[in-house]
Amino acid sequence: MEYQPVVVQGRLRPSNSKHGAESRYWRQFKHPVFIKEYAPITSVHFSPSKPHRYAVTAATRVQIYAPRTQKITKTISRFKDVARSGSIRQDGKLVVAGDDTGLVQVFDINSRAILRTLDSHKQPVHVTKFSTLSPTQVLSCSDDTTVKIWDVPSQTTVSTFTSHTDYVRSGQISCSNPNLVLTGSYDSTVRLFDCRSGQSEIVMGESSNINATTKLPVEQVLMFPSGTVALSSAGPIIRVWDLVAGGRCIRALSNHQKTVTALAFDSNAGRLLTGSLDQMIKVYDVSTYKVIHTMRYPAPILCLAISPDETHFVAGMSDGTLSVRRQQMKTTNGAVEPLRFGAYESFLGTSSLSLGQGIVREKTKSKPLGSVDELRVESRRVKRLKEYDKLLKSFKYSAALDSVLRKAWTFCSPS
């Protein structure tokens, strides 16, 4: 009878089946590219339209990157002071940004020309965003405690809100109603404004909602696409507010160790991503608000964004480092297409077959050589036995044990 090699039983590692699939998905964002800027990166924003270029704001400039190549395609540097919150409009043609002089400027993304200058604010403007449902309107939030809605063609203010009593460093126009504006301020309150009434309809963070001794500046706010629930971050705490119930706090999350500086959703708002000064980015399942994945970075996180097609994940850090991670690209028919470039694709020997709107990659099969009737004898590869198997085959049990122990001692002994 032929000798059968010894089968070594490996020790199974404990696995978390509950979060395994989620962790595997977020680990697909591989191949990080680190781009060094000369100042802290305060804002990253992806264009909602293809090819999903993204705007990176740092120091006195806003740079537009191409996600495929990670190269800078445009640099907008016509600012008198530090630039803030560069955002791209839905159609990908315009960019709006504020600066520390109080100016809000609208640029053509291709020519980089200044199309509009909005100069009503008296102090730095930290938030500038286009309205999703009204593309000709722009939101601006300033350190002069005011929040404004601008009509870009006429360069006039549509609404001005003055209810905050301290810096307003975060804000968003609702994706479901262009008249609703959610803002967060250093006065420790989150407010929901209505342009139709010109008033603050809901105030969150006052009275008994939060203990007065634990009030902290609100760094970020984020509203669900449905417009019924809002999120805010103050210090290391993330709070969930039910807007339908009048701004009631329904959940408080405390998974970070330091101030949470960035909030973002994935493409379908099923996952919440948070970045903090503790150098961690955490991913939450919004159905349970449980942490399903954690990513560690080399410096404190100031901003983050994920592309609408979920192929690129970008984070900006306080030391001026921009981290860009990418994963496999999904085609329109749901298939997965690896990110391949030029010669590498040719090297793999793949061919593209167009089927409707999708693209299917098919490997080219090599043709058999020789005659069909030719008898071909394949050589069997003999498996080489390990040292202890050779000794066991010769009935040298003591020597086989010594061989195993000697190998284990080699691995365990200090170098």
Automatic annotation (TrEMBL):
One of its GO terms (cellular component) is nucleolus. Keywords: Nucleus, Repeat, WD repeat. SMART domains: WD40. The lineage of its organism: Eukaryota, Fungi, Dikarya, Basidiomycota, Agaricomycotina. Pfam families: WD40. It is found in: Nucleus, Nucleolus. InterPro entries: WD40/YVTN_repeat-like_dom_sf, WD40_PAC1, WD40_repeat_CS, WD40_repeat_dom_sf, WD40_rpt. This is Uncharacterized protein. CDD domains: WD40. The keyword Repressor does not apply. The keyword Repeat applies. WD repeats lie at residues 118-160, 161-203, 253-294. Its main location: nucleus. GO terms for biological process: positive regulation of transcription by RNA polymerase I; rRNA processing.
